[in-house]
Amino acid sequence: MKVTTIGRIALVALGCFVVLAAFFHFVYRPWQLTWGATAAEVARPMAGDELVAYPSFNATRAVTVNARAERIWPWIVQMGYKRAGFYSWDLLDNDGIPSAEHILPEFQNLEVGDWMPLSDDTDAEVVALEPNEQLLLVFQSDGAATWAWGLYEIDAERTRLVTRLRWRAPNRLSQLTLDAFEIIMMRKCLLGIKHRAEQRRHLKGTLDVWQPLARCSRNGRRQGSHRPRHDRLSSRPGYRRWQGQCHYRSPRPAHA
Fold first, then answer.
1. CA–CA dist 148, 165 (Å, integer)
2. Would you say 160 and 168 are in contact if contact means Cβ atoms under 8 Å apart?
């Protein structure tokens, strides 16, 4: 009798595990890898796609922000560990320091070649940057990774904020951790940027800071090359330096 009972319990447990594993693989993982993004956004090339060959984690997420790109960009460039934070779960990614609720002028001059701290022992290099359009971060954290940000205009008052994280996890445990929990942080980060950018009372004067960086025609539309953003960046020397490299490694620089 006891053997039969134990066998039934084991069979039920096995069945539950199979159902849970199937749900995770076929429902949860596809959902979290493309949260908020359209099929076109997932398929669209972004800066840095070729820098991590055969990523085991390739996530494209997006959200519509009821604000112009100039209102969103300052929140992105000031991100970082013990900078403005990541607008996510601060206890987990910023040593409990609350993420900024306003624009921090001292962190607005991000340039290619700068480093953005992601944690106490990991920095990301700014490999490509076009103000109000896109940002590419490359870093090494138990595997090569790229973190791309893109701003795509919908109309005069709405913008699609898209982010893509490509990572080649070094082992199955890291892969499982990414698949299961990374969306928790990223979703809150995107919604945190959206919330802050839409609160215009925090952003008085922000447009004036970035407007000279974007050349505009008389009708208010941005002038410049009609080449895709990805192509424009990939032609630059600083970006070409990383093209075709599957393993990105660089020492963590000393902070002043």
1. 6
2. no
6 pLDDT exceeds 50?
yes
Round to whole Å and give the CA distance between 83 and 165: 21
Which of 227, 62, 241 lies closest to 149 in space, CA to CA?
62
Question: Which pLDDT does position 9 carry in this prediction?
Answer: 84
Q: Which domains, ranges and CATH numbers included, belong to the chain? A: 34-214+223-240 (3.30.530.20)
The per-residue pLDDT for 211 is 40
Give dist(CA 139, CA 75) in Å, integer: 20
Q: Which residue has the higher pLDDT, 245 or 251?
A: 245
Task: Yes or no: say if 116 and 126 are a contact pair by the CB < 8 Å rule.
Answer: yes
